[in-house]
Amino acid sequence: MNIDTFRDYCLNKKGVTEGLPFGPDVLVLKVMGKMFSLVSLDEVPLRANLKCDPERVIELREEFAEHILPGYHMNKQHWNTLILDGRLDSKLVFELIDHSYELVVNGLTIKLKKELEDL
């Protein structure tokens, strides 16, 4: 998967913004100001960090050991790094983006959830 496909998929979700708060090499995608994905723009192949349910983190790392790793520079219990070299099915990547987004949305305050609903 390339950066354009990954980025476009994320930006089509409600309330998502992008930025480069850690410098020009790390694209950060947020929903209502909360991070749900970080993408290393200078890595080849492309690498993306996504939030994940702690129980699912382990399952994914075991099943896709060469392509899903503990989250680089993130809390290893809640984040995975996906190596996007084309070997992970795009359907799985999109599902994991959705999962990360939903985890963050579910953790929003009532006020932010209402603002997101109203967008």
From TrEMBL:
Coiled coil: none annotated. SUPFAM superfamilies: YjbR-like. InterPro entries: YjbR, YjbR-like_sf, YjbR/MT2646/Rv2570-like. It holds the Pfam family YjbR. This is MmcQ-like protein.
